[in-house]
Amino acid sequence: MLFNELKMQPNFYIYKKEVDWSVLQQGFTIPVSIQVAFRQLIKDSLPRGTIKNVSLIIKNQTYDAKLVNQNFDKQKYPTHKDIIQFRYEPNSPIANKMRQIFSSSYNYFSEFKANDVLQEYRKRPIPISEDRKEYLAIYTTQFEDAFLLENFTVQDSRKVEKEVESFDEDEFEMAVNYEQKDLTARIERKPQLVKIRRLNKSICDNLKLLYKHRCQITGENFCEHHGVSVVEAHHIDYFTKSLNNNSDNILVVSPNYHRLIHRLNPTFDRKNLAFIFPNGLEEKIKINFHL
Predict the structure, then answer these.
(1) I need a labelling partner for 264 at 20 to 30 A (CA). Which of 18, 48, 197, 237 fits?
(2) Closest CA to 147 of 264, 44, 270
(3) Quick one: three-class SS letters along the chain?
(4) CB neighbourhood size of 184 (10 A)
């Protein structure tokens, strides 16, 4: 399974959740696509109808919440997937903390709902522009019933945007892919970049595991015959320009191809999943599980 290599480690990335009205009021859902791996991480099968007390840690404070596998009529919905959620009450301390931290989102959603006289978005996601989106990153801890939440606010994004101006993409991606201190020293002095680097590295490490350290372009595990695996993560739209660390903006490639891509800056054709190089050469991706 995807998380077998890292499931015993604390502070292991689970997923990145875009902040919506539900996060600010009552909780958030674990996506169906990662539920099996999530159950492995928490070492709990969590049958339907199960409610488990958990702790959520954010900004060095611990809050009570519940981990719930919602119960529903199996006969009425025989093919319905499990609904696993972190839940809390709208007036709980953790909900109040969420609204305080993500005040930009809360004010925007509140104003939108007040003006939605037809209640068109009562059960639909409220639209929000890319530059206003905020996020939670969810990590495991050394305790199976405690989870670390890291916030990425609009203010964080603006600070990161300013801070990465002094980095080129090669330097930042080397810091994401490797632990060498000489590559990360400048990042470690900037708190917002520490969070961003940790999230980027976590998402990239997950994708490397997903592809079993194979290059998506060649389909090969570089240096496997030497008993080691060397593969790197590449941001399709350069992170230092886009600040986009979603998995759909990341490819897993061999170091040789990574250097070539940064040297020649080919265009990536998302429809055909291919790099178009300046000389007209087209390199299609051979393996793809996530784009």
Answers:
(1) 197
(2) 44
(3) CCCCCCCCCCCCEEEEEECCHHHHHCEEEECHHHHHHHHHHHCCCCCCCCEEEEEEEECCEEEEEEEEECCCCCCCCCCCCCCEEEECCCCCHHHHHHHHHCHHHHHHHHHHHHHCCCCCCCCCCCCCCHHHCCEEEEEECCCCCEEEEEEECHHHHHHHHHHHHHCCHHHHHHHHHCCCHHHHHHHHCCHHHHHHHHHHHHHHHHHHHHCCCCCCCCCCCCCHHHCCCCCEEEECCCHHHHCCCCHHHEEEECHHHHHHHHHHCCEEECCCCEEECCCCCEEECCCCCCC
(4) 20
Query: What is the tens place of the pLDDT at every residue in 44-72?
Result: 778 889 999 999 999 999 999 999 999 88
Neighbours of 91 (CB within 10 A): 8
Cα distance between residue 169 and residue 50, in whole Å = 45
80: amino acid identity, one letter = H
Residue written as token pair 């998302």: 270
Angle ∠(269,2,245) on CA atoms, nearest 5: 45
Q: Do the strands 51-58 and 146-152 form a parallel or antiparallel pair, or are they unpaired?
A: parallel
CB atoms within 10 A of CB 94: 20
Tokens for 8, please give them. Answer: 């015993």
pTM: 0.83
- pLDDT tens digits, 201-221: 999 988 998 899 999 999 998
CA 34 from centroid of its chain's CA atoms? 12
Give the whole-angstrom CA distance, residue 135 versus residue 152: 5
Structure tokens at 132: 């206003």
Domain coordinates in residue numbering, the chain: 13-152, 155-284
